Amino acid sequence: MGTAITLDLADDLPPARLHELADQVFAWMREVDARFSTYRADSEVCRFDRGEVLLSEASSDLRFVLEACADLWGDTDGFFDAYATGRLDPSGFVKGWAAQVASDRLLAAGAANHCVNAGGDVRVRGCSPSGEPWRIGIRHPWDPMATCLVLAGTDLAVATSGVYERGRHVLDPRRGAPAGGLRSVTVVGTDLGVADAYATAALAMGVAGIGWLDRLADHTHAVITDDARQFHSVNLPLTG
């Protein structure tokens, strides 16, 4: 899906087992890419969008994603819209969801201490190799070599949507035009797919997205506006 995937396994398991777990994670991510990449004409999501795959013929993963996107459209008052570009593109949910599934599988397999990073959408559990909580840096929206905030925790799903890599690629679905007003939105929760979609929706809302994020239950956030103002939840899990 045009992004890099990194994995950090911090459990004291035999090397062969760690390699096996890592191989399973990357095999899953390759499977997700083959099914959901909008860059690949032969992906299931592209074939479904062209009408070459019927809903009754779709994989269980595609049906799940379509249902989740429909629910998120309602939860965000239409600002998370998988059809905002005029074609089906659920990437704003899929990347986070895929990393969440990978994390869930690692936990079930006995690897309780890990970090899965899917292009800046991060799911951490347990402790880092140092035995301390994981630290997640939020990229500075104007300086790619710097961070603007650092979060810490042992069970966090951290999703960031911004304009600094792909430009204004997120559309305001009501205007059919690139969203403006916000430079970067980070949402923190426990489900990375949901956090990913919420970050995308808030970016699409523009400055109004700040108030919407303030009202979200069970999530915290950090926002940087186009004019370099920063806002964040009072209970954002920041570290010094």
Please explain how this structure is put together.
It is a single chain. With 240 residues, this protein is α+β, with helices and mostly antiparallel strands. It has a single domain, classed as ApbE-like domains (T-fold, Roll). 35% of the residues lie in helices and 24% in strands. It is built from six helices and eleven strands. A seven-stranded antiparallel beta sheet has the order 1-2-3-6-9-10-11, covered by helices on one side. It has a two-stranded antiparallel sheet with strand order 4-5. α4 (91-108) runs antiparallel to α5 and α5 (192-205) packs antiparallel against α6. The longest helix has 22 residues, at 15-36. The protein is globular. The model has no long low-confidence stretch (mean pLDDT 94).
Number of helices: 6
Query: What's the CATH H-level superfamily name?
Result: ApbE-like domains
Alpha carbon gap, first and last residue: 34 Å
Average the pLDDT over all residues and give the rounded result: 94
Tell me what portion of residues adopts beta-strand conformation: 15-25%
Largest sheet: 7 strands, antiparallel
Instruction: Using the 3D structure, state the CATH architecture.
Output: Roll
SSE string, helices as H and strands as E:
EHHHHEEEEEEEEHHEE
Share of residues in helices: 25-40%
Oligomer: single chain
CATH top level is Alpha Beta
Strand order of the largest sheet: 1-2-3-6-9-10-11
Radius of gyration: 18 Å
Tally of domains = 1
Catalytic activity: L-threonyl-[protein] + FAD = FMN-L-threonyl-[protein] + AMP + H(+)
Cofactor: Mg(2+)
GO molecular function: metal ion binding; transferase activity
Protein name: FAD:protein FMN transferase
